[in-house]
Amino acid sequence: MPDFIEIEDIGSNPAPRETLVEIAERRLSRRGVLAGATAAAAALAAAGPALAEAAGPSSLGFGELSHRLSQRDAVAEGYEIQTVIRWGDPVLADAPPFDPAAQTAAAQAQQFGYNNDYLDFFPLPRGSRASDHGLLVVNHEYTNTNLMFAGLGAGRAAAQKASAEQAAVEQAAHGLSVVEIRRQDGRWAPVRDGRLNRRITATTPMRISGPAAGHDRLKTNADPTGTRVLGTLNNCAGGNTPWDTVLTAEENFNVYFGGAAAETGAQRDHYRRYGIIAQANYAWPRYEPRFDLDREPNEPNRFGWVVEFDPYDPASVPVKRTALGHFKHEACTHAISADGRVVIYMGDDERYEYIYKFVTARPFVAGDAAANRDLLDEGTLYVARFQDDGTLVWLPLVHGEGPLTAANGFASQAHVLIETRRAADLLGATPMDRPEDVEPNPATGRVYAMLTNNGSRTAQRLNAANPRPSNDHGHVVEITPPGAGTGRVDHAAATGRWEIFLLAGKPGVDAGARYHRATSDQGWLSCPDNCAFDKHGRMWIATDGAPAAAGVADGLYAADTSGYGRALPRLFYQAATGAEVCGPCFTPDGETIFLAIQHPGEDPGSSFERPSTRWPDFQEGTPPRPSVIAITRKGGGEIGS
After folding, report:
1. Quick check: 577 and 618 in contact, CB under 8 A?
2. How many CB atoms lie within 10 A of CB 366?
């Protein structure tokens, strides 16, 4: 069998409906990178050397790292790294010790799962702003079979050799962990017997709600109602709500399913649009009928949604909210619009896919849990069209409007949501370069979309918001809703403005790379993936794919989003090569930033018994373990100040 499908690189949108533009029409507005750099330089020159020395072009106070490819991670001087929790560490009080040579599904279901991505911190007690005690919520995106189990050989093809028990371990290693953590004497550690600790896995019972619940295409032999499902899969970036629930995004769900029906079944075209093929990436279809398309052709339609649950209630049943659309969700972050309605921003992480937002029908009611409980079941899903003149138009995916009619095969709103990608195609949304995290900046109301890369984009498929062919390094787009910066931001508006915040890559080497003109040889970045904002409105960007694209390890960069240092990144943290950095998350006081370190040791040819040369702990039968780390300032204080 060949290696795994490169799941974000499928490019299953073959004919995007978008006006083509010439490379010369790249748009960088008056607030864009070049204009911002010129204005900043002029302001500094006018102010004289004293201001330049006192403030500098960046508000960030740390000395940046040097780019590297190293077997060790590193952080800026004056900061320290703590490991909070790793794959196999106990989550539930009765969890057995981790034994990588004798894993069982029962043990893994009580232990910290595998490749961790989205992180969130929920203070304890609920409703407080505590920064030294809280719940750490962690997504477990996928598993590396060859790194988890001995005897399967090197490479991703090892997944097909997994036994039934090993496949069950993998399912238990997916999902999420909720772990009580506490900081004492400056050190973070899990609370072993925390009463709110919880594991959610690929077999946890869940409810399906919203317009698509009960639709015929969500019904299976095990669930003839189409309203109950087991588990959540491939949880990547996520988010939360103003009523303190978790939103976890199901991304590359397609890789778990296989069968001849992918090529011959009644849903063949639908499967193709979502990247579902006859050969699954895992051995699961051999052992469980629900992953075999020939036996359960509707099961894939029950994944690829946003899942909501209450982290403060370990008995709460997670709910798949179908009103938010069916696609490869990356991120589901919220903002409250000026009229009180909640807006959820989302990306569809694949080449040539789209950016979405969901606007609730009713406003959020502070302090009223009953009023907010099912708020995400009613509202309007929109997809973005980035016009060449800098206008952003949000196109509603509503049955009966425009092309979303029975004449085009859409019988209901449920049908529109199940086939969200096809509906967005017909509306003429703008195909983007792998939309990943889409995050509102609480300080300004502007929204930032991380576009990780698209090496397959050709000159014939350019558009103004994605202006580079062979975009190996990605870029960041800034969206400005009406009222941004005024305190009354209309996130629910049908239009807005957009511009390119930065074009990644190394200036002078990679075509089109553009930042603030003062960006150093260490500050340029490649493959932006996740981001977070500190309380000053500065953006912290985590990268995924930089070693292959740029020859530097993935890391965490920070940049101002306004003022002298706008679009001037500084390198703060760098992982050991082979690992991805994701899930940046601050405590409320800004004195800790948590990071998810995913797939350590994922170097070509690595396996359990064939150590990666870049991971010193990958030896003596112990593979490197995905982990969550905490970074704090030595002696205390805000990160970045």
Report:
1. no
2. 11
Instruction: List pLDDT tens digits, range 415-460.
Output: 999 999 999 999 999 999 999 999 999 999 999 999 999 999 999 9
Exposed e or buried b per residue across 482-518, where buried means at least 16 C-beta atoms within 10 angstroms of its C-beta: bbbeeeebbbbbeebbbbbbbbbbbeeebebbbbbbb
pLDDT digits (tens, 9 = 90+) for 49-72: 232 222 359 999 999 999 998 888
**What span, in angstroms and rounded, lies between the C-alpha atoms of 244 and 338?**
20
Check residue 602 and give its pLDDT: 83
To the question of pTM greater than 0.85 for the whole model, the response is yes
Longest CA span, the chain: 74
SS3 content of the chain, % helix, strand, coil (to 5): 20, 30, 50
Single out the residue of 562, 615, 1 nearest to residue 280, CA to CA.
1
DSSP-based three-state secondary structure for 253: helix
User: Please, are residues 369 and 394 in contact by the beta-carbon 8 Å criterion?
Assistant: no
Across 472-517, the runs of DSSP E, i.e. the strands, are 475-480, 495-503
Tally of helices (H runs) and strands (E runs) in the chain: 12, 31
Q: Which residues contact 218 (CB under 8 A, 6 or more apart)?
A: 208, 212, 226, 227, 298, 301, 302, 418
How much of the chain, in percent, has pLDDT values that exceed 90?
Answer: 84
Contacts 24+ apart (CB under 8 A), 47-54: none
Q: Report the 3 state secondary structure along 93-111.
A: CCCCCCCCCCCCHHHHCCE
Cα-flanking dihedrals φ and ψ of residue 533, to 5°? -125, 135
620: pLDDT strictly greater than 70: no
Distance CA 281, CA 553 (A): 26
Cα 114 from Cα 108, distance rounded (Å): 9
Burial 211-246 (b: 16+ CB within 10 A, else e): bbbebebbbbeebeebbbbbbbbbbbbbbbbebebb
